[in-house]
Amino acid sequence: MGIDLTAEAASRHQAPTVRGPSEEPVVLTINGTHHTVGLEPRVSLLDALRDRLGLTGSKKGCDQGTCGACTVWVDGRRVLACLTLAIACEGRQVTTIEGLAADGEPHPMQRAFVEHDAFQCGYCTPGQIMSAIALIEEGNAETDEDIAEFMSGNICRCAAYPGIRQAIKDVRDARERP
Amino acid sequence: MRPLGYARVSTVAEAVEIVATDPAGAFLAGGTTEIDLVRLGVARPDLLVDINDLPLHDIDDLPGGGVRIGALARMSEVARTPAIAGRYPGVAQALLLGASQQLRNMASMGGNLCQRTRCAYFRDGVSPCNKREPGTGCSALDGLNRGHAILGTSEHCVATHPSDVAVALVAFDAVVHTAGPGGVRRIPIDDFYLMPGDTPDRENPLRHGELITAIDLPPAGIAERSVYLKFRDRQSYEFALVSVCAAVRVEDGIVTEARVALGGVGTKPWRARLAEQHLLGVPATAESYAAAAAYELSAAVPRRHNAFKVELAQRAIVRGLTQAARGGMR
């Protein structure tokens, strides 16, 4: 059994260290680079990225986990940076929209968004792209219904959804070709 | 947001001790409810204890056919685990119809069970609300109560519990394991959720510093052909107006066993025991299902804006049982 629920397991002990509430050094690994930045524990990953590290690609739409504009990857999974504390990301790998281009070449999904005009104002686009790439990795892009359902956490107020879905299908199909 | 202390812990004992000894301490798992409510000023911890490194992520088969879900397993992981998707399809479907994939990647199963109501008066931080500030009154009784409960309500609170997966877990008699200052215990999930009565601020029997460690599903049985249906204002990424988890065993056209639980209509994830009793021994027909549904909803107390839920819940039960009798979602 993987989980030990005994009283004995519940009594194993080490002394915890409390950090904050004032600012202290926090080590974040963003797009493969280590950054040491002074942060209070209450600072969200989104605010740390945008206001402290100058990585303004991740957008703040609602700041309450409903719009998806702040979508980033933590340890390879798409999550919402607005509901994540930066300090909780110590020791984890954070990937943002700025980390997608390799050697100055846009990621195929970035290129597909341009080709299919998958945006109007562009504010939701970084979150859409971070979700779209993860969607294919998860295996949730197989049908049109799956794409619609598993992209529903990224809202586009300009309603560029047809272009977004076409971009996803293009990248999916290009990957499947031998 | 208020200033916060932060501690990351690596053992259950450490987690329990640090929260138990700090009256303003709280556990932090996925954070999808906790960080939201702290930012709104509705939750007011001084210290968040990050439990994500605890060894409570696994999903294991239990001897005898059940499944143990670690409290820190993420919703998305649980939904795609073959043991859950294959043997408890109603549970997997409930998970996949909740929130968005980003939130499902973050949210832990233990946190899901403890999530707070979406009642706007609770969340706004200022309106009279007995759940947030006992004794101040309930703004939803005569306010905007379209999303509110019709079953299990009291004159002090009509808030619904928002979880989808808890509805399926209630249908199949899951058991919640906890560790706390007083040791470990097992709580049948239907007892884990409390009716509001005159203490709507108390939603579950957890003591301060008591941590959910795992959720056990008993051997599947009838759950193998279960369905979870969700009815809401938009097709995806929305809380339920009404949802139903249903499973039914039919022999020679007669119902021999049934499970029905409702979301979106109860002050707790609602096991429809009246409907289940009414279904035993009746022909497996839409008429029987409708009679059972009417029996369950006869106890409903609708309010100005949510009376539609009485009819919607009955239709949901009929559709859920009909689909379950046809062989479930697969």
Keyword list:
heterodimer; A: 178 residues; alpha+beta; Ubiquitin-like (UB roll); DNA polymerase, domain 1; 2 domains; five-stranded mixed sheet; 6 helices; 14% strand; globular; B: 330 residues; Uridine Diphospho-n-acetylenolpyruvylglucosamine Reductase, domain 2; Enolase-like, domain 1; five-stranded antiparallel sheet; four-stranded antiparallel sheet
SSE order and pairing:
The complex is a heterodimer of chains A (178) and B (330).
Chain A lengths: L6 H5 L12 E7 L2 E7 L5 H8 L18 E4 L2 E4 L12 E3 L12 H8 L9 H14 L5 H7 L10 H16 L2
Parallel strand pairs in A: 1-5
Antiparallel strand pairs in A: 1-2, 3-4, 3-5
Helix pairs in contact in A: 3-6
Chain B lengths: L4 E4 L3 H9 L4 E4 L5 H7 L6 E4 L8 E3 L5 E4 L4 H6 L1 H6 L1 H8 L4 H6 L2 H5 L6 H4 L41 H7 L3 E6 L2 E6 H4 L18 E7 L9 E5 L10 E10 L2 E10 L6 E2 L1 H7 L6 H12 L10 H18 L5
Parallel strand pairs in B: 1-3, 2-3
Antiparallel strand pairs in B: 4-5, 5-8, 6-7, 6-8, 9-10, 10-11, 11-12
Helix pairs in contact in B: 5-9, 11-12, 12-13
What's this model, at a glance?
The complex is a heterodimer of chains A (178) and B (330). Chain A is of the alpha+beta class and 178 residues long. Chain A has two domains: 21-98, Ubiquitin-like (UB roll) (Roll), CATH 3.10.20.30; 108-176, Orthogonal Bundle (DNA polymerase, domain 1).
